[in-house]
Amino acid sequence: MTPGQKVAYVVDTLFSPANAAAIVRLAAGADLFFCEAPFLEEDLEQAARRYHLTARQAGALGRAAGVRRLQVFHFSPRYEGRYGEIVAEAQAEFAGQEVHYGELDRRGAAVP
What we know:
Elements: E1 7-10, H1 17-27, E2 32-36, H2 44-49, H3 55-65, E3 70-73, H4 83-94
Parallel strand pairs: 1-2, 2-3
């Protein structure tokens, strides 16, 4: 017998405290976390209106969940030719830049 891998997948969701907590619980300790990132942080308001995540939010969620690898996808066509920026924004946040939405622990609870 060999140990399995945990894969988490999140798409079409609004960044909210309740959703963030649920996503962190779902993805906790995953080997691979597939997370939507349709928008860059510069379009945060558009992301919220469309009930989607930004790349930075995806990175923050992956970091809070303690996943081993983050794979972002589901990019808005508005960024055609700029997909590298989306990946870079998500990976920078995942690697430990300041979380701009309130720190989340591995259970998804806000850290004071």
